[in-house]
Design a protein that fits this description.
By secondary structure, this protein is mainly alpha-helical. 57% of the residues lie in helices and 3% in strands. The chain has a two-stranded antiparallel ribbon with strand order 1-2. A hairpin with a 2-residue loop joins β1 and β2. α2 runs parallel beside α6 and α3 runs antiparallel to α6. It is globular and about 35 Å long.
């Protein structure tokens, strides 16, 4: 079975789109980064390395320092699918990130986005 194109796309090519989406709604790059750090365990330096090396999404998630144990609290619809029902682990991780960025752009408080 052919893998979805997103798996081989570089994270660096999509990262600016996350920031643009957030900034369009008066949110910040720092908030986007905070979401990524919370979800994946990357920090500022390791995220910058990923961006500089143009790591693909598959590698981005495979090498994530530590996926947040609260990812199961991320629920709802994204791209027409319920994130909690996506069976393919990598696709689910990508959609978790999409969902969190969407919540940021919709004005949710960081406390709620980060499931605190």
């Amino acid at each position: 079975m052919k893998q979805p194109k997103i798996y081989s796309m570089s994270f660096a090519s999509v990262y600016p789109l996350y920031i643009k989406k957030a900034e369009k709604k008066e949110r910040t790059k720092a908030e986007v980064d905070e979401i990524i750090f919370w979800l994946t365990g990357y920090d500022e330096d390791s995220l910058q390395q990923v961006i500089d090396q143009k790591v693909d999404f598959e590698t981005f998630f495979a090498e994530a320092p530590e996926m947040n144990p609260n990812v199961t609290l991320i629920t709802g619809m994204i791209c027409g699918y319920r994130v909690e029902d996506i069976e393919e682990k990598l696709m689910q991780q990508i959609r978790y990130l999409d969902k969190l960025i969407d919540e940021l752009a919709k004005g949710k408080k960081m406390e709620k986005i980060l499931r605190k």
